[in-house]
Fold this protein.
Amino acid sequence: MTLANWCVLAACLLPVITVGLAKAGSAKLKPEEGGYNNREPRLWAQQLEGWRQRANAAQQNGWEALPLFIAAVVLAQQAHADQGRIDMLAMTFIGLRLIYIATYLANMSNLRSLVWTAGVAVNVAILLMS
């Protein structure tokens, strides 16, 4: 498995981790006290506030970012592009996603948008290798 393929797996796990952050601390509470409600998770998510709400939003954006990243990596590899460059750009994307999550949690919206844009640019760069 290539390093870029491991990065695809990491990108798939990042949304799971961010929603875990949103749920952290509420697992011990009853749903009526604001704890996680597995019967109505979307209703529970709508009631989140502060950094937990932003963690849930980062999770949603993580799922939205996956298709382009996965397609870019797969298409570049199918085109037999330089694997070292694909790997480097894929690692860059994961680094940017980690920064994106941190800026989302810290409520740094302008920086977050710049990091998001850089992530899209990295995906386009990988895709252009195909």
About this structure: Helices lie at 3-23, 41-46, 50-78, 83-105, 109-127.
